[in-house]
Amino acid sequence: MKYDIIIVGGGVIGLSIAYYLKKESPSMKIAVYEAKYIGYGASTRNGSHIRVHFWSEPNVVFAIKSRKLMLSLGSETGWNPIPYIGGYLWLIYDEETYQTYRSTDKDIWKKYGVGVEFMDPSEVVEKYPYLNVGRLIAGVFGREDGKIHHDFVTYAYAHKFMEKKGIINEYTPVQKILIDGNRVKGVIVSGKTIEARKVVIAAGAWSKRIMKDIGIDLPLTPARKELSVLEPVKFFIKPLIIDMREDSRGLYVCQTPRGEVMGSVDYPEIRGTYEFNNTLKYLSTYAKAVTRLIPSLRKLRVLRVWSGDYNISIDHSHIMGRDEEWPEGLYVATGYSGHGFMMAPYTGYLMSKYILNDYIHRDMEPFLPNRFREGKLIKEVMVIG
Ligand SMILES: Cc1cc2nc3c(=O)[nH]c(=O)nc-3n(C[C@H](O)[C@H](O)[C@H](O)COP(=O)(O)OP(=O)(O)OC[C@H]3O[C@@H](n4cnc5c(N)ncnc54)[C@H](O)[C@@H]3O)c2cc1C
């Protein structure tokens, strides 16, 4: 068996790359190898939020372009991902954070046409009377942000890739990347060699282990996060709300199109790749924080809790492309640090150009892996959840 390109990982990142590669070059022999089933990892376990508001310029630029591609996906693939652009509302409780929002708005967001609306506490209370805001100092509303259904995006990419004779092998974990001299030779699956000229590692939280096996140590830490839905009620929480009180532990909450109240807190964070199980600690911390912010949720029952991994890089920004010191033909797209779903479309688009034509777009350059050895970290700190 010989392929032009093998992609390791059938999550939204691997499938977006596969989709754009086939779109650009339909005759290429491309296979995706997935250890379990399509979307087994974070791609079907996430909050499905998309935003353009980051604190670093490279992420803002990347997210704006990814959002544009995401919103055109329905007409492009025929799969409607049910976009809902209800905005993000950050509730801010300290002066330093407030000033950071002010300066980022002035220096970056306005420059790219995604400025935010600043609200004083009385405006927040008037507009969102269901919130118990405590000693709020400001609300910040980002209108371009919202939600898109993650399953539709992941399966749209898979479906369109297969339609063009791309191959997806489920329940076939890649055991090892094969290197011959200074070139990638393929992968080992079920003890057999599958040859390929190029191999892309898009294995989410498992990428670090796969790369370490061939002597490349990416600065990544997987961290398990939990998320839950409460029973559905009439739609009233319009934006995604992020409560930045210290003791709210990164609480975020919204409603799904079905009316379920969905949200999370950043606690307890368990580092490493473990079973996808859940903890009472998470649920009790979340329940306390969410009912303080929206007391009317007190009587709602919990429908479901689940977990998935954030794959956190040292600068909270993704790693895409290749380092010229790596074996020829080896690429990565990983380390999305809790915002990989929204970055998937532009990742696939840019990675396909790079893999096929060796073209490094300027929007991709800051995310190349050599930034770590060259000390050019991105310094993104706006991670939600
Ligand atoms: C609770 C939670 C909420 C989130 N909320 C958001 C959000 O609102 N918005 C957002 O943009 N992002 C969010 N994220 C992050 C987002 O889900 C991820 O960044 C994104 O899904 C990463 O996609 P991926 O394809 O890189 O990884 P994954 O979806 O994890 O896919 C990796 C795949 O690789 C496979 N694999 C592993 N090892 C091997 C192997 N050896 N061989 C073959 N296959 C292998 C796995 O089985 C898996 O299917 C959230 C994540 C979590 C956990």
SSE topology sketch:
Blueprint lengths: L1 E7 L3 H13 L5 E4 L15 E2 L6 H15 L1 H5 L10 E5 L2 H15 L7 E3 L1 H7 L10 E5 L3 E2 L2 H14 L3 E3 L4 E7 L2 E7 L2 E10 L5 H6 L7 E11 L9 E4 L8 E4 L5 E4 L5 E2 L8 H14 L8 E12 L5 E3 L8 E5 L5 H18 L12 H5 L11
Structure write-up:
Strand 13 (240-243) and strand 14 form a beta hairpin. The chain contains 10 helices and 19 strands. It is α+β, with helices and mostly antiparallel strands and 385 residues long. The mean pLDDT is 95. Flavin-adenine dinucleotide binds at residues 8-14, 33-36, 40-43, 45-49, 173-174, 202-206, 210, 225, 227, 308-310, 334, 336, 338-342, 385.
Task: Please report the distance between the alpha carbons of the first and last residues.
Answer: 42 Å
Which ligands are bound? flavin-adenine dinucleotide
Annotated CATH architecture of the largest domain: 3-Layer(bba) Sandwich
Which secondary-structure class do the elements indicate? alpha+beta
Shape: globular
Low-confidence parts, pLDDT < 50 over ≥5 residues? none
Average pLDDT value?
95
- Helix percent band: 25-40%
What's the alpha carbon Rg, rounded to whole Å? 21 Å
Major β-sheet, in short? Answer: 9 strands, mixed
Number of helices: 10
Could you name the CATH homologous superfamily of the largest domain?
FAD/NAD(P)-binding domain
Per DSSP, what share of the residues sits in E-state strands of 2 or more residues?
25-35%
